[in-house]
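@channel sequence for tomorrow's demo:
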Amino acid sequence: MTASAFASQVTDLARLSAQSGRRTLSEQTGVDFSSNDYLGLARSPLLAEAVRDALARGVPIGSGGSRLLRGNDPEHEALEAEAAVFFGCERVLSFSNGFSANQTLFSTLPQRGDLVIYDELIHASAHEGLRIGRATHVAVIHNRADAFEDAIVTWRSSGGKGKVWIAVESLYSMDGDVAPLDDLIAIADRQDAVLLVDEAHATGVFGPEGRGLASHLDGRDNVITLRTCGKALGCEGALICGPAVVADFLINRGRGFIFSTAPSPLMAAVVRASLKLLQSAPELRERLWHRIRIAERIFEPLGATVTGTQILPIIVGDAARTMDLATKIKAAGFDVRGIRPPTVPAGTSRLRITITNNASEAQMAALGALLATLPLSA
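structure tokens (generated this afternoon):
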């Protein structure tokens, strides 16, 4: 029954296996060099205490409905108000996760007749939103600010009349490099465009009090930022930050918001506590940055690309060899994941090393010693 009913799926899985592209789930084992829990808050007693406090004051676990029905809890309202102050924007709207937030943002805000110009390495959630949205969209060369402006000029010279949206990530999670945000906002100003910045991997790590790489742009009427809560903040959820009209429009037109059960009020309370920790515990970021500098000295001689961020990829190239190396490394007690297409372009499969407060300096040195014994280069 299964083979005949799902023959095409079986065939596709076989094809993925033959191409070393089939994915499976694996448990969290070994020293953490793969998570996005950059500040080490996900298992922190600080946030565990926030959970206990919230439960003690009666914060519910489940929301019971969408925000537009009965699911709008005071914790959601408090989180959005406090986050707006923290990030220096007019309004914040919270979502259950970054994928849902990005998908809703890109499928709802840009209208028919508009143009979305996006960096070719932008996250899959943005692609999904663009796929179901109404606007024309075009990719440009990664991190080339001039390519964005050229695309705008070309589109307008061919008759394009709508709004232009420039979409980037501030920190790219597979390469560890950062976007030229100052150049891009200058282009947005010149071309009457809106800049959309995904701050998922920069929030909590960069900027004053962990406000991100785009923190100096917050509060502008042509900037929208996305801050996710499931990475450095150690929680879950996402915050769309920008002008009040953006939140109002998503509440009224964003199907991913309207028809989705509201995020857990308990998690909203924990995110509030995490934002307070960014302000009151600078030692969390200081510890991380100390480890990043040590990691750069350890892993750069082994072939890691050092970009001044917490993400250090080692490009291997071949997908099968990358996954074989990742298996050997994990067997030795270090959780380093292999990344392969379609997550990264063909021929650029890599070992993605992330530096977090979950791994000690001694453990980083031990991983470096192991990698020195492996054939990492082609």
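heads up for whoever presents: The radius of gyration is 21 Å.
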